[in-house]
Known about the structure:
five-stranded mixed β-sheet; single chain; Trna Endonuclease, Chain: A, domain 1; 2 domains; alpha+beta; elongated; 11 helices
Amino acid sequence: MENLFRMSIFNGTIELYSFRNSYPNLSYLEVINYLRKGPAINATYDYRRALILGEKLNWNIPINKNRQQVLMQMIKSLVFEVKPMWACCSHLGINKTTALMDMDELQLFYSAGLLDISLSVEALQWWDDIAKFSRSLVEERKLSLGREGERRTLEHERSRLNSQKIEREPQWVAHFDNMAGYDILSYNWTEDGITELFIEVKAYMIGPLHFFVTRSEWLKALNHPSNYIFHIWNLELNDLTIFTVENLLDHIPINQGEGVWENVKICLDDCNDSS
Length: 275
């Protein structure tokens, strides 16, 4: 995908829209021909990519505002549309975000007043809006990874139940009740016959190799210590690690004083060492 966060592209889009707004009977290609024959500064803009940018923004260019406000709105709209890599980190702060930008992107942001030493109220609000968007992307990715892990556990359990001659169908509980304390309901042979097996699923693509256990998940596990397990999927390698309640006991915090733990981060290597 072409990187459209370039000053010459944004300027070209603004000029295209402004000119055509004055001459609506002209096509954008005709406008480009006119602009390339005009003043030298306008002729140097990247109109091919400017046309692409305009289409991505649905030509929603607020030319009635000042230049910095126009750029701010255009940049925000493009961020929401293409989700650049640096936008996914913007909830971590401006410095972390700009560290991932190239010089052309930084130039665009400086021109928009988004990197001034003393940011305007409007610029601060802009960064807050992008940070909210960034957090939504993180949550969206977590949900996507989680659902994929649950789907693989469902397939794994169907195969296991079939091989063990258990004529039951595993249930994708998390789709219907995200507060149940587990994701998949399956079954196992025990001394009492076929019993329920509660499975909490965690998934990741690449390191760091860790997962989180919530208090509600752990309380559910403690209520069913012999038939509650954790499926930890490495989605990239399609590799499944299974932990029992006993495997995780040494890694769960305790409440002290007025403090009550809500979730705990557990490193996969530590669990493997103790299991």
